[in-house]
Every structure is written in structure tokens, then in C-alpha cells.
Amino acid sequence: MTRQQVLDLYFMESRFKLVEIAAFLDRVERAKGPADFRLAAFRKAMKELNGKKLGRAKKVLLSFSDPTTKPIAKAHGKGATGAWPGK
Length: 87
What we know:
Blueprint: H1 3-30, H2 37-47, H3 56-64
Helix pairs in contact: 2-3
């Protein structure tokens, strides 16, 4: 596809997602109480979006991922949190 075709096909959907992210961050900032590791991971991931370098999707995904290679003996919870707490 040409750049124009990609813009025509995906711009509105991506615009919507960007507005949703802005709304999410506004809600987080208005809420009381401390943030946890997920907000830090989210902000780190957003930094990967800046610039024109290829591979942004991989870098964003890796910013949420556990970089360790040694298996843990037992999971610390029953559900996924979506980000690595860095412990």
C-alpha cells in the first residue's frame, strides 16, 4: 500500500485510540491515591512512540514485558496485570 492508502484506511481508528489514551490518562491524573508500576510502564511505552524509527510496536510491547529468563516458582496472583512490576 502507499502511505496515502494506509492513512485513508487506518487514520480514523488510530485517532480514536489516541483520544482514548488521552482520556485514560486524564482519568488517572484526576484520581486520588498513588499510582503503581502499571502507570510507569505505560508512560515508558508512550516514550517509544516519539520519532520516526521503525520497530515501535515491538519496543512498546517490550516495555510492558518481563525481561527475566529464569522461571518463578509460583505466580503472585491469579490474573495478568498487563505490565511487569520490575521485581
